[in-house]
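Hi W., the zinc ion complex you wanted:
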Amino acid sequence: MNPFIQGLPKAELHLHIEGTLEPAMMFEFAKRNQIELPYASVEEIQSAYNFDDLQSFLNLYYQGSQVLKTEQDYYELTWAYLQKAADQNVRHTEIFFDPQSHTQRGIEFETVYKGIYQALVDAQAKLDMSFQLILSFLRDLSAEEAMETLKTALPYKDTIVAVGLDSAEQGNPPSKFQKVFEAAQAEGFLTVSHAGEEGPPEYIWEAINLLGVARIDHGVRSLEDPNLINYLTEKQIPLTVCPLSNVELKVFNSMAEHNLKKLLDRGLCVTVNSDDPSYFGGYVAENYQAAADALNLNQTELYQLAKNSFKASFLSPENKQKLIDELDEYVAAKSLRLTS
Ligand code: HPA
Ligand code: ZN
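Structure:
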């Protein structure tokens, strides 16, 4: 790992907490909750992580999530992620959780929420890392089920900044959830949506026009639509890009073919994130590193990506500025000459 990347103050804005379940932890939780796993070893799990597309990943991701049962499990899962993120100088994190993948199995929303939230509060105190929490609806389930989930979350709305949309994208357009997102906005939630990961640019337009999103998660297929690129650039609507995820799920055939640098060069507010680090082979710094290696990103571009991560966050303007100042000091201390 390049020490410049490791130490770069950064925010992570696209991270599914269920996607941080490392194989060893999966075994530990399965044992303690008496759940049978279809794997005999950590190595067997790792060799199963060989994906053709988003759905082939989601099948294993939901299967993995089933080992999570108690508030303690959710706490330990989240705490383990936060420690890794702190080691990579993640100064602020905005994490997704998928309540439906747990409530569908009879786990209470409150159990999931409390474990995750307590770990985040502890990280703020012990690791000096700020956070936001984003509730994500599973878009392959019905809009009615999403609405039910929203209602369940209302008692916790002061600590959940936004709602999002994840899971199987193709055939589940943002328009399916327009009413749910309107209801969420009326309750004060911000909105984000996965769009243009596997789905077409039209889904990105729908997320903007029908769901009122503040950011697009992934959005890499935006490059197919010049009008959309112009719009995203003009409005500076951020994209939370996840390079290793995109390569592992065959959105791009290789990192050298990833369009991250093209998007950055076009002036979009692009950020780098890890999505599901335990499944895709790296946390956020490994994502910066893999992109930097394959796309020859220089330190000015890495700085811009980190700066974008703070700009695109749901922090207050004052807190954004504090972290951008910290980033500027980091760069100044390294006596870097940033090129324009
Ligand atoms: N896309 C859609 N759904 C997901 C993802 C993703 O990258 N990660 C976890 N759920
Ligand atoms: Zn995602």
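The radius of gyration is 19 Å.

W.
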